[in-house]
Amino acid sequence: MKQAKGKSSNSLRIIAGKWRSRKLSFPDLEGLRPTADRVRETLFNWLQERIVRADCLDLFAGSGACGIEALSRGARHVTFVDVSPVAIGAIRSNLGLLQAADFELVCKDSLTWIPTTRQAGGPCFDIAFIDPPFASSLLGRAAMALERSGLLRQEALIYMESAQEIATTQVPANWRLSKSKRAGTVYYYLYQRHDPESDSQ
Question: Average pLDDT in the 107-123 region?
């Protein structure tokens, strides 16, 4: 969502965990739209049994709201990926203010990064957040690329957020819908990955 002109910065609040109620600023970039507080609260209620010690991927990280919330709640490691140097720089600054550890910042196009990182021996993830700019057509492409990459562990959870209902054709066949909800014009979903071979039997 494009921010109002003349407003150079915005803030987000960490909902819970060791940095509960801390406010962080994020840059005024077109398309940068942090997951709203009430949506994030619901999402992390869904994830509460899995977030501690989880390896997480914040794809199209933007403000880093989901990844930072995950670290606050006990995630083992978070990889933040975004194409914008300004967005990555702001996430780095905020993580520095929080004295955070156990994270990686990647300033690359997400669809370029996904297939190359596993080939290079990159990590596997327990939880992935996929929340590209609403005006883009990246959501389904990123989901399919992520499934093909081998970056997700067998029972990984995947969060997806969109301005419209997500079609089944945008989601890999072996991802099972676990939770879904709508908040105003925002649709958000939690999927669980299953072994494609077991689905074909």
Answer: 84
Total domain count for the chain? Answer: 1
Interatomic CA distance for residues 33 and 131, integer angstroms:
9
For residue 1, is it within any domain? no
Structure tokens at 152: 């997700």
The model carries a pTM of: 0.89
Domain that holds residue 90: 9-199
Residues 64, 58: Cα–Cα separation, whole Å: 7
Instruction: Look at residue 152 and tell me if it is in a domain.
Output: yes
Asked whether residue 192 carries a pLDDT value surpassing 50, the answer given is yes
What integer pLDDT is reported at residue 123 of this predicted model? 74
4 falls within a domain: no
Write the DSSP string, 74-122: T-SEEEEEES-HHHHHHHHHHHHHTT--SEEEEES-HHHHHHHHHHTT-
Residue type, 154: Q
| Arithmetic mean of pLDDT over the chain | 88
